[in-house]
Amino acid sequence: MKILAINAYHPNASAALVQDGRLVAAVEEERFSRVKYAAGFPTQAIRYCLGEASTSIEHVDYVIVPRHPLARLGKKLWFAARTPSFALDRAHVAARFASIRYQLAEALSVAPQRIRAKFHKVEHHKAHLASAFFVSPFDQAAVLSVDGLGDFASAMWGVGRGPAMEVQGDVAFPHSLGIFYTALTQYLGFWKFGDEYKVMGLGAYGEPAVLDEMRRVIQSSEGIGFRLGLSYFQHVRRGAAISWSSTGAAPTLGQLYSEKMEELLGPGRRTKDPIERRHQDIAATQQAVLEEVFFDMLNKLQRRTGMKALCLAGGVAFNCVANGKIFRQTPFEQVWVQPAAGDAGLAVGAAFYLYHQMFGGPREFVMEHANWGPGFLDAHLRLAMEEEGLADKGYRIRKLEEPELLSETAARLADGEIVGWFQGRMEWGPRALGNRSILADPRRAEMKDILNQRVKHREPFRPFAPSILEEAVSEYFDAPSLSPFMQMAFPVRPEKRKEIPAPTHVDGTGRLQTVKREANPRYWALIDAFRQRTGVPVLLNTSFNDNEPIVCVPREAVSCFLRTRMDALVLGDYVIDKPAPVFASAAEPPAPGQPGSA
Fold first, then answer.
1. Domain assignment of residue 587, yes or no
2. Which of 399, 404, 396 is nearest to 526 (CA)?
3. Where residue 90 sits, what CATH number does that domain have?
4. Number of domains within the chain
5. Is residue 582 in some structural domain?
6. How far apart are the C-alpha atoms of 220 and 294, rounded to whole Å?
7. Which range of residues forms the domain containing residue 178?
8. Are residues 522 and 382 in the same domain?
9. What's the rounded Cα separation, in Å, for the pair 205 and 203?
10. Is the peptide bond between 491 and the residue preceding it cis, with omega within 30 degrees of 0?
11. Residues 230 and 172 in one domain
């Protein structure tokens, strides 16, 4: 049985293919279109998934989309009657989904009648829950999805047992924990779609100094759930005001907070204004109140279900700061967050919902790694280098056997070099987990600023992540759980903070990735080679990109290497060095006023 799942006409458009209950491929459209958070129809993602499965659309048995227009229809009609612009937008999207078979046929250049698959729909948050539970290692668990909005709900919870889930409740629009966080993100001057993670990092620099005021903006409800102070928001009057194009710029959101928010907290920050202590404190308070509501939901859910294991999905499940505190703030003893917990993950969730929940298929698959995207042969790597004319331009290219490749790369990292690392199949989700990564020495306190100056060009308050051998986690982190997909932040042990200062955040935590040998043998071996040379089983890991989606194909890795100041690129078995003159030593601090400088 082949199931193709399509998350379309929604930010983070994606596709996934499941065959006989096992995931074969999953990828976001942005990796092909190079438009961050790309919406529209995921044509290239679908083509990749079919190709990875060595099949065609004619041989797919089922197609499923994570959207159900009849969900909460009464509330939708009531809101649409009051908000004509919202009604028009929803009608436009509904029309596209009604013709999904024809759009799929057009995207794949086949006649519609050649698509013999049966088409199904699943509600947005049910797909989120399925994406968390059905690929988890748990036979039974409490399940919770929390995000901005999907099928007129912003949260859903229940319990999963074996091949089935029971939904026990939800929170309907316009109340939304995700919209709360996004509105405050805009208020703090971060307007790009997906900027919430920036505010999460900024909050570590402040104190929750305006708790009383923020608790007027959102409060927990008596049952599982919450309520917004709706007068502080605009979406209740005109919908979420999201816009996107299938081929153009990234999705955008209209202003979500109202004038009353500024009356409560003071003037909102303009994007180019300096960040003041007041802004840091508001970010810290925003995070603190989100945690209050989130943990209240989790504690009530645990009491209701009696479960010790928890599966999370939805955009709020990317809040690694909150996730890391679940073990101390709730009775849950095990937590699972899959690598694409946000809306891209709806594709995987929809496919497994169909296979398990609707068809009763047995559970035989656990997502033990995130490598579900494109991989490339040696010939593809050589072609990318030839197309750029690297050899003719004086670049040094060597192909090494794995022991020498690992030993040399570890030595160069230990010497302070910045290395692009392109290996195997691309990761599923927004985190680089050792196949599309930029790596550096975590022992150098200055490395964060150097990376920002030479490669990443991002805000100095945003931390980088530590990748650590699974066997060494307890030595370096106060971590009650493993974190293979970089979804949890845990305290770095005080005695180790001076040893790995570069990926240690200002609050003493790290958004760690625990690396299991069986899940990614080559990346594990590289970290181990670095450990043998330095005594430290940790590398600083950041995504292989520069203000763009993570690189997908070899050509993009080479291009990013050429236009930034990385020292070396390891492309499969090839080590590529730039021609002389070499750049300044990695120990050199960034020049004052440059991106990444204090």
1. no
2. 404
3. 3.30.420
4. 3
5. no
6. 9
7. 136-240+247-337
8. yes
9. 5
10. no
11. yes
Query: Do residues 512 and 386 share a domain?
Result: yes
| Residue 453 in domain | yes
300 and 398 share one domain: no
* Domain end point (choices 129, 158, 180): 129
Q: In this structure, which amino acid lies at residue 492?
A: V
CA 23 centroid distance within chain: 19
Per-residue tokens: 390: 């690297």
Residue 300 counted as domain residue: yes
| Paired tokens of 207 | 């104190």
Q: Which uninterrupted H or E stretch holds 431?
A: none
User: Do 387 and 480 reside in the same domain of the chain?
Assistant: yes
What angle (nearest 5°) sits at the alpha carbon of residue 358, between those of residues 139 and 42? 100
Give the list of residues 6+ apart from residue 304 with CB closer than 8 angstroms, or none: 168, 224
Question: Residue 96 has what pLDDT?
Answer: 72
Cα 327 to its chain centre, rounded Å, is 21
- Whether residues 263 and 386 fall in one domain: no
Tell me how long the chain is.
598
- Whether residues 125 and 145 share a domain: the answer is no
- Only one residue has tokens 């919430």, namely 196
Residue-by-residue pLDDT tens, the chain, 598 positions:
999 999 998 899 999 999 999 999 999 999 999 999 999 899 999 999 999 999 999 999 999 999 998 887 787 777 777 776 665 566 666 667 778 999 999 999 999 999 999 999 999 999 999 999 999 999 999 999 999 999 999 999 999 999 999 999 999 999 999 999 999 999 999 999 999 999 999 999 999 999 999 999 999 999 999 999 999 999 887 766 677 765 556 888 899 999 999 999 999 999 999 999 999 999 999 999 999 999 999 999 999 999 999 999 999 999 999 999 999 999 999 999 999 999 999 999 999 999 999 999 999 999 999 999 999 999 999 999 999 999 999 999 999 999 999 999 999 999 999 999 999 999 999 999 999 999 999 999 999 999 999 999 989 999 999 999 999 999 999 999 999 999 999 999 999 999 999 999 999 999 999 999 999 999 999 999 999 999 999 999 999 999 899 999 999 999 999 999 999 999 999 999 999 764 444 444 444 333 333 3
Q: Beta strands 2-7 and 62-65: pairing type? A: parallel
Task: State the angle between helix axes of 554-563 and 378-387 in degrees (0 to 180), rounded to the nearest 10.
Answer: 40
Domain co-membership, 422 together with 497: yes
Tokens of 280: 């840091």
Residue 31 has what DSSP assignment? H
Backbone angles phi, psi at 427, to 5 degrees: -70, 150
Rounded to the nearest 5°, which phi and psi values hold at 438? -110, 130
Question: Any residues with CB less than 8 A from the CB of 91 and at least 6 apart, and which?
Answer: none
Find the CATH number of the domain harbouring 284: 3.30.420.40
Other C-beta atoms closer than 10 Å to the C-beta of 445 total 12
Which CATH number characterizes residue 445's domain? Answer: 3.90.870.20
- What span, in angstroms and rounded, lies between the C-alpha atoms of 305 and 168? 10
**Residue position matching structure tokens 């050649």:** 114
Q: What residue ranges in 403-515 does DSSP mark as E strands?
A: 419-422, 436-440, 465-469, 488-491, 509-515
- Tell me the pTM: 0.93
The burial of 303, by beta-carbon neighbours within 10 Å (0-12 exposed, 13-18 middle, 19 or more buried), is given as exposed
Q: What is each CA distance from 554 to 312, 316, 429, in whole angstroms? A: 33, 32, 19
Nearest to 292 by CA among 210, 211, 197: 211
φ/ψ of 121, rounded to 5, equals -130, 150
